[in-house]
Amino acid sequence: MFEDYLLEVMVSLASGFLAFRYTEKFLYLKAGQRKKALALWLALYVVGLGFWGQAVEVFMPQAQQGIYGSMANLMAGALLMVVLQRGFFANDLPRQMFIVVSFWAGWGILKFAVSPLAHVLMDVWGPLWQYLLEMAMARAVLPAQSLLAMMEAVNRGAVFVVLLFCRLVQLALLALYLHLISRHLLPRDYELKPQESFFLLMPCLTALVIDLTLRVMAFSVDNSALMLIYDRAPEILFLLPMASLLLLGLVVSAVILLRGLVQFKEEEQKRQLLEKSVADVQRQVRELEDIYGDIRGLRHDLRGHIESLHAYVDSHLPGEGRELEPYLDGMAKTVARLDFADKTGNAITDIILHQARQQAGKRGIAFEADFHYPKAGDFDVYDISVIMSNALQNALEACEQVPSGTVEVRSYQRGGLYFIDVTNDFVGVLQWEQGAEFPTTSKQDKSHHGLGLTNIARCAEKYQGTVDIVADEKKKRFLLTIMLYQRSN
Questions:
Q1: Which residue, of 39, 251, 285, 392, has the fewest CB within 10 Å?
Q2: 345-402, pLDDT tens digit by residue?
């Protein structure tokens, strides 16, 4: 009937749209214009499903259309979606398999989630329709033939409304199911491993097999097995939707669990990298302390030697001394270069600022520092070194592409709090993932980069401190503030 074809076209359009939206969450679209791609996808999707449905009616025996026709339609829809994916989206076989299987498993199993609803509504409408028919015939408001024709049209319209409502419920549940998966599935740039794909596919295949089993049951006894079950065991009207929804919940749970496992693994890798980074900093700090001590001793000795040479030349070689003075002055300037421009009150932070100043000079970056190591408070020099090294390294890298860029670092105290501010220019737009505390790194290897701010935050937590970021997108200025609580000795 016309109503049946209209309903199927409407449902195909809606499910095709959900299939497109679901796919584009995990695969990159090839076409440049999304609207045109969506329109073509929907046209091919609806025509493909309609053509296959007609082929089943024509070529499959009537007796087999119930059991095998339903199964064939499901398989044909999955195959059509695979073909459309390969035509419209970038190839990613593990994700494509999961998208297709999870979509059609959800669509199929939800048919049995709403089947009891349709059964209940039809049970309500059947007696009501019979009552209306008997009442109309008793009052003889119209000739019997006209009345029957009108009531038949009313009945067809009511059945259409019931089926449309059930389909809308099925589509709404499917949209919710796909949304939950889309929200928790791993990002598109994450490459699924074989064991991860297997982990995701197993609950989907389970739901799909149960769906096929229910389809066989639904048409096993005069195409009415489920109706008989509903009548003989009314509790199935509640248990079947619950079982269907729990199966889809199992799929969603697998997606959420996998994301949690991957994130835990990434956090563990980051933790190991951070521990290695801290150990490297501690080793470098010890080496720098030794080098700094040697430099101070060497500088003191060289200055003494130069002063002695000046005195000797002035007293014993008054004439020839003029020729030696440029040489001795050059030596004095070389020794003066061993003096650090920043006197922070701690040898390690002196060296860190000295190295940052040198890197800034090589990159053409203006560097300004007003930093003083905290005199009071139980601070570990290793933690301050980690904070300073990571903050300055990030600032210099961000400022490297900025013409006449500037990096500023300063520290100050407010009561029992110690603050470190690092300000720098930057280019581009900062990228923030949803719920992320810090912006994401722009480097390709994200598992081994973008750890600087995390390092700083871990050190700040030791002192009940916090890390705050203020990014001015208009002025292209980035301010990093580290607040530490000064514990008394």
A1: 39
A2: 887 788 888 888 888 988 889 999 999 888 766 788 888 888 888 899 889 988 888 8
Tell me the three-class secondary structure of the chain, residue by residue.
Answer: CHHHHHHHHHHHHHHHHHHHHHHHCCCCECCCCHHHHHHHHHHHHHHHHHHHHHHHHHHCCHHHHHHHHHHHHHHHHHHHHHHHHHHHECCCHHHHHHHHHHHHHHHHHHHHHHHHHHHHHHHHHHHHHHHHHHHHHHHCCCCHHHHHHHHHHHHHHHHHHHHHHHHHHHHHHHHHHHHHHHHHCCCCCCCCCHHHHHHHHHHHHHHHHHHHHHHHHHCCCCCCHHHHHHHHCCCHHHHHHHHHHHHHHHHHHHHHHHHHHHHHHHHHHHHHHHHHHHHHHHHHHHHHHHHHHHHHHHHHHHHHHHHHHHHHHHHHCCCCHHHHHHHHHHHHHHHHCCCCCCCCCCHHHHHHHHHHHHHHHHHCCEEEEECCCCCCCCCCHHHHHHHHHHHHHHHHHHHCCCCCCEEEEEEEEECCEEEEEEEEECCCCCCCCCCCCCCCCCCCCCCCCCCHHHHHHHHHHCCCCEEEEEEECCCCEEEEEEEEECCCC
Any idea which architecture 341-489 has in CATH? 2-Layer Sandwich (3.30)
